[in-house]
Amino acid sequence: MTTTQQRHHCESVLHEPRHSPTLETQLMVERCIREHGSFQSKRALLRALPRQTEPPTLVTILKYLEASNKVFLSEDGSIVWVFTDNPKFLQLLKESPAIRSRARRSSENT
Questions:
Q1: Which of 19, 35, 45, 81, CA to CA, is 20 to 30 A from 3?
Q2: What letter does residue 70 receive in the DSSP assignment?
Q3: Domains along the sequence of the chain with CATH
Q4: Could you tell me which of 80, 78, 56 has the C-alpha nearest to residue 69?
Q5: In this predicted model, what pLDDT tens digit does every residue of 4-63 receive, in sequence order?
Q6: Where are the alpha helices (DSSP H) in the chain?
Q7: Interior/surface letters 33-71, b for 16+ CB within 10 angstroms, e for the rest
């Protein structure tokens, strides 16, 4: 490799895209996981998305969603929506006897 080729190679490595997702892509992935509840793998999630997304971009989005406590990424590679707007979770809270009795007691005290 000549000096010129080495310089061009180094410049191209330094200026590689960092897979910064757009807000539209971020919201698309978030909506898809929320609606499905869970996926067995990243590949399954990629197949379910309405638009093609690069795997490194998806990894960046998943890291953000995990850091914001919206998804749980398990060791086996599955992805689960855990944010409290999950309708099943809210329904379980509503039907829970312990939660209902506490809510009833606090409303009686006010």
A1: 19
A2: S
A3: 20-83 (1.10.10.10)
A4: 80
A5: 554 454 444 444 456 689 999 999 999 999 999 999 999 999 999 999 999 999 999 999
A6: 3-14, 23-36, 42-48, 55-67, 87-95, 97-109
A7: bbeeeebeebeebbeeeeeebeeebbebbbeebeeeebb
